[in-house]
């Protein structure tokens, strides 16, 4: 320590010179830094924008060797994990751990699964992750890195705006398929227009324009996430619907801000056909004589869900030899509805149960006096059975005035896009 101190003492002049030189250098560098600040900041911004590339399950790309397979019909979790050399005891442990997150019994043929290893195929280590695709959007991960951990995840979805038009010749479904449009559009349009369009009386020449959002995972379309606006011409009547969401409001409204949702649905099924109409004199298919048929029959495959056409309270859910399994609902002091020939009731449907419009109350069958699977739908107004297809029902609540301006802005933007779409002139009826 004495020698070190001595060296410092006898070199004071040298040290002072060095200090001065260092100070000058520092000032020069600071001046240079000030002049390069914009470039430096740009580099920092670019670094911030660099994102780690990940696959659709959230794993870093390039970090793993991946084995992929498809579940074959009849295969179980045991078959899948056996491919990765798991013992029966290990498979049982995985199955028990999975149970609270996803039942192994729900594994289905046709779905994909993946094994993630953290090294290349020449020097494989233990399996890190097992991934099972539950659906296009959801997946299950079993993490083997420490103790077994199981979790579900959802893929990152990007919505892309799309537009389409169509001229109906036979049915909405056929038109969607023939135009190579997503089949989910049928269900979306049917739900939005269920109160305005009688899909059981579609005519050749009915047509539509639609703006919708197509969901993508990466570059792959995985379905329709929603409809922004629709224009439908049904039996010569023009119907507009615009999606509007703000605060607690989320629905579809016509050009004047009236809700497209009405008090009652037009029919108790999303799909089907009218096989027999309301009539004061119909030839009974079983008894062979003519008698009143005070309802509308909707034919549909066995097991098709039957929907409550409006909010109400179940007053009957029972069986008779003529009606089979049937449900009766009181909606208010004026209206009641009844649904006959069900194969079975939906869970929770019993007298006193409260139902909302669109709730599944049962399933199509042919119980009672029925020659085939259908639902006989009956409608009461002030205690008298009436033909519901001849009634006009009021709309739901209109938009509050506070939302008029934002709705008009959205409506005009969507309407302009719809008006820019043209039908094929050869297909438009004269």
Provide structural commentary.
23% of the residues lie in helices and 34% in strands. It is an alpha+beta fold and 430 residues long. The chain has three domains: 65-154, Nuclear Transport Factor 2, Chain: A; 157-262 and 394-430, Nuclear Transport Factor 2, Chain: A; 273-390, Glucose Permease (Domain IIA), CATH 2.70.70.10. The strands form four sheets. Strands 11, 14, 15, 16, 17, 18, 19, 20, 21 and 22 form a ten-stranded antiparallel sheet that branches. The chain has a five-stranded antiparallel sheet with strand order 1-2-3-4-5. The chain has a five-stranded antiparallel sheet with strand order 6-7-8-9-10, sandwiched between helices. Strand 7 and strand 8 form a beta hairpin. The longest helix is centred in the N-terminal third of the chain and has 38 residues, at 12-49. It is globular. Residues 1-16, 28-36 and 426-430 have low confidence and may be disordered.
């Amino acid at each position: 320590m004495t020698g070190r101190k001595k060296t410092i003492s006898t070199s004071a002049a040298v040290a002072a010179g060095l200090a001065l030189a260092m100070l000058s250098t520092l000032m020069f560098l600071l001046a240079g830094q000030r002049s390069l600040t914009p470039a430096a900041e740009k580099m920092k911004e670019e670094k911030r924008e660099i994102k780690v590339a990940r696959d659709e399950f959230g794993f870093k790309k390039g970090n793993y060797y991946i084995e992929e397979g498809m579940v074959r019909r009849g295969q179980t979790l045991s078959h899948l994990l056996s491919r990765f050399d798991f013992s029966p005891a290990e498979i049982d442990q995985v199955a028990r751990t999975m149970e609270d997150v996803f039942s192994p019994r729900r594994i289905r043929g046709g779905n994909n699964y993946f094994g993630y290893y953290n090294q290349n195929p020449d020097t494989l280590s233990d399996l890190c992750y097992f991934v099972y695709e539950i659906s296009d959007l959801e997946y299950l991960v079993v993490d083997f890195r420490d103790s077994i951990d199981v979790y579900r995840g959802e893929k990152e979805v990007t919505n892309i705006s799309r537009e389409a038009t169509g001229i109906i010749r036979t049915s909405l479904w056929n038109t969607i398929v023939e135009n190579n449009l997503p089949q989910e559009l049928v269900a979306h349009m049917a739900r939005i227009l269920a109160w305005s369009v009688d899909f059981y009386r579609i005519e050749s020449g009915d047509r539509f324009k639609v703006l919708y959002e197509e969901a993508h995972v990466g570059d792959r379309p995985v379905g329709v996430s929603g409809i922004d606006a629709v224009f439908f011409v049904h039996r010569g009547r023009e119907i507009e619907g615009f999606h509007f969401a703000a605060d607690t409001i989320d629905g579809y409204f016509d050009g004047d801000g009236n809700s497209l949702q009405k008090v009652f649905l037009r029919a108790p099924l999303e799909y089907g056909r009218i096989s027999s109409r309301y009539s004061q004199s119909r030839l009974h298919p079983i008894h062979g004589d003519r008698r009143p048929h005070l309802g509308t029959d909707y034919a549909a495959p066995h097991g098709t869900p039957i929907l409550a056409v409006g909010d109400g309270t179940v007053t009957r859910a029972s069986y008779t030899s003529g009606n089979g399994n049937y449900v009766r609902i009181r909606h208010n002091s004026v209206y009641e509805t009844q649904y006959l020939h069900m194969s079975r009731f939906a869970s929770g449907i019993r007298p006193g149960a409260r139902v909302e419009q669109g709730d599944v109350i049962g399933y199509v069958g042919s119980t009672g006096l029925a020659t085939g699977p259908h639902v006989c739908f009956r409608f009461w107004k002030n205690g008298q059975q009436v033909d519901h297809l001849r009634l006009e029902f009021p709309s739901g609540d209109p938009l509050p005035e506070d939302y008029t301006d934002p709705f008009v802005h959205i409506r005009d933007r969507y309407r302009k896009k719809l008006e820019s779409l043209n039908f094929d002139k050869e297909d438009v009826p004269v």
